[in-house]
Amino acid sequence: MFKTLEANGQMTQKDLIRETILPSRTVRYALNRLKEEKILMERFYFLDSRQSLYEIKRQVSNAIVV
């Protein structure tokens, strides 16, 4: 999940499910874990207010690369 978001940038939960071919429950669990660890940013998705956009925080992404 982390690598997919890191490679593709902002994605919705549906996009992540489609891209990773993982069950929706697994994707929700992974997103919740990343949010708990403060690795993930959740933003409002203006095109569809029922969904959110997820992306990896920049500081975390840079710290992992180093």
Q: What oligomeric assembly is this protein in?
A: single chain
Q: So, the CATH homologous superfamily? A: Winged helix-like DNA-binding domain superfamily/Winged helix DNA-binding domain
Strand order of the largest sheet: 1-2
Euclidean distance between termini CA atoms: 20 Å
- Beta-strand residue fraction: 15-25%
Q: What is the name of the CATH topology? A: Arc Repressor Mutant, subunit A
Give the SSE order as H and E letters: HHHEEH
- Could you say what the CATH architecture is? Orthogonal Bundle
How does the overall form come out from the CA principal axes? globular
Spans of at least 5 consecutive residues whose pLDDT stays below 50 are none
CATH class: Mainly Alpha
Count of individual beta strands? 2
Number of structurally distinct domains: 1
Largest sheet: 2 strands, antiparallel
Number of helices in the DSSP assignment: 4
Percent range for helical residues? 40-55%
| Structural class determined from secondary elements | alpha+beta
Mean pLDDT over the residues:
87
Radius of gyration: 11 Å
Structure description:
By secondary structure, this protein is of the alpha+beta class. It has one domain (2-65): Arc Repressor Mutant, subunit A, CATH 1.10.10. The protein is built from four helices and two strands; from the N terminus they run H-H-H-E-E-H. The protein has a two-stranded antiparallel sheet with strand order 1-2. Strand 1 (40-44) and strand 2 form a beta hairpin. The longest helix is centred in the middle third of the chain and has 13 residues, at 24-36. It starts with a helix and ends with a helix. The mean pLDDT is 87.
